[in-house]
Specification:
Elements lengths: L7 H13 L4 H11 L14 H26 L3 E12 H7 L5 E6 L6 E6 L1 H11 L15 H14 L1 H7 L8 E6 L13 E11 L2 E10 H4 L8 H5 L8 H12 L5 E4 L7 H5 L17 E5 L2 E11 L2 E9 L9
Helix pairs in contact: 3-7
Family: Belongs to the FliM family.
Protein name: Flagellar motor switch protein FliM
Membrane topology: Peripheral membrane protein
Length: 332
């Protein structure tokens, strides 16, 4: 059923038509069932779930923040990059949607197979180049006549910028991005088959007063091995790292070297603030401990043992008689 909200007059007219026989309820149900049938284009197969698309969006929101920081420091001007959209489309459709002449950086991301494409709108790319060369950041779109120096400067800048890609993905998979190609004509670049599903993350980019898009194109075949890690269950679960036996032995050995204070408590007492303020040299405070009762031995501030005082090698000492039953049993 459609999401339209009928007015009261429309509802009255519909009920009237049903009651007078002008409209058949069975026909209405049949028409409603027919509307539920949707056409499916097998050439545009949806191979990423909505859950996975949301995860990819979160990852690239982090990537956009890292790029903003990198380019702001590199270009020394106002830079803002944010995720505009994340869509899955055939590779052929993506190639048709970008300019005929643009800046395309192709990366390999070992250990994953396949390649990833970062397409930078010429307006944005030339604004960056102008800033790097000491200009104000104005754009001069002449991408079809890039000199060797301009090509080298751009490829080096985008190669270093994409190092942030591995940081954005480190919670899901380890990657080592490597720039393998720098191209300006989309027709000369064939990463995957035309009908291969790719996810395209579009980034709104502003450099000074110039704005444009940066598109990250990731083929399905690249992400296929790690797709389970893009689910909500993976993001929500907390993996408990188990220590290895050697690590446990090392930790136990190091803990045994730790110093802990041991205090033999003679007893306690309570007095009023007034009595405390009146205390003077020679006054006696009565404790709640009998002189012939064992003392409480505290380890690290926690009562652990009971013992009796004495002397050993002309020094005051205490002999442990038993564990303190009210103490922390787990720490014995």
């Amino acid at each position: 059923m459609s999401g339209e909200v009928l007015s009261q007059s429309e509802i009255d007219a519909l009920l009237s038509a049903l009651s007078t026989g002008e409209m058949d309820a069975e026909e209405l149900k049949k028409e409603q069932n027919e509307r539920r049938i949707k056409s499916y284009d097998f050439r545009r197969a949806l191979r990423f779930s909505k859950d996975q698309i949301r995860s990819l969006t979160r990852i690239h929101e982090n990537f956009a923040r890292l790029l903003t920081t990198y380019f702001s420091a590199k270009l020394r001007t106002y830079v803002h990059i944010s995720v505009a959209s994340a869509d899955q489309i055939p590779y052929e459709e993506f190639i048709r949607s970008i300019p005929k002449m643009t800046i395309m950086n192709v990366y390999e991301v070992p250990p994953l197979d396949g390649r990833i494409l970062m397409e930078v709108n010429p307006n944005v790319a030339y604004a960056m180049l102008d800033r790097l060369l000491g200009g104000k950041g104005t754009s001069h779109n002449k991408v079809d006549t890039l000199t060797e120096i301009e090509t080298k400067i751009m490829s080096t800048m985008f190669e270093r910028a994409f190092e942030n890609f591995s940081d954005a993905w480190d919670t899901v998979a380890e990657m080592d991005p490597q720039l393998t190609e720098f191209e300006v004509n989309p027709q000369f670049l064939q990463m995957v088959s035309p009908n291969e599903t790719v996810v395209v993350i579009s980034l709104n980019t502003t450099i000074g007063e110039t704005s444009g898009m940066i598109n990250i194109c990731i083929p399905h075949v690249v992400l296929e091995p790690i797709l389970p890690k893009l689910s909500v269950h993976y993001w929500m679960q907390s993996e408990k790292k188990e220590n290895q036996p050697l690590e446990n032995a090392f930790l136990e050995k190091e803990i045994q070297k730790a110093d802990v204070p041991i205090i033999a408590e003679l007893g306690t007492s309570e007095i009023s603030i007034e009595d405390f303020l009146m205390l003077d040299k020679g006054d006696v405070i009565e404790l709640n401990q009998r002189i012939d009762s064992p003392l409480i031995l505290k380890v690290g501030g926690i009562a652990k043992f009971i013992g009796q005082p004495g002397k050993m090698n002309k020094k005051m000492s205490i002999q442990v008689l038993d564990t303190f039953k009210g103490g922390d049993e787990d720490g014995e």
